[in-house]
Amino acid sequence: MFKKTRRQFLATAGKAAALTGIASLSGSALSAKPTEKVFVHHVYFWLNNPDSQEDKAKLIEGLQTLAKTAKTIRQHHIGLPSTTNREVIDRSYQVSWLLFFKNKADQDIYQTDPAHLAFIKNCAALWQKVIVYDAEDI
């Protein structure tokens, strides 16, 4: 029977562990599914009364209801301007609404979804300006 020194054992074990890790990584990399593409819809709202906490709360409540009821929204995020302050940052809006859809077709369906139309009807009087940025994965 071959007897190894402690140093030889550790060297052999280290090489085996490294090879196993490389094989494991390459196997998982090969089997990993490509990231699904999404359609991003980002809306910025400027309120008629930008200092009104009540109006902001009404708009946020309307967005939360919309998020629960519109069928094609995959993910959403409601945000307020950050306190970051650099020349390239626009913090003039009051609320942002970030949506993720499976594709453009789902976003098109969302535009005519009764929940979206009800949100516009119920909340449009709160805002003076809305800007939308849509983006599709490459």
Automatic annotation (TrEMBL):
InterPro entries reported for this sequence: Dabb, Dimeric_a/b-barrel, TAT_signal
Keywords: Signal
Stress-response A/B barrel domain mapped to chain residues: 39-135
Gene3D superfamilies: 3.30.70.100
Name of a matching Pfam family: Dabb
Family matches, as SUPFAM superfamilies: Dimeric alpha+beta barrel (SSF54909)
Leader peptide range in chain numbering: 1-31
Hydrolase in keyword set: no
Protein's name in the database: Dabb family protein
Naturally occurring in which organism (per UniProt): Chitinophaga sancti
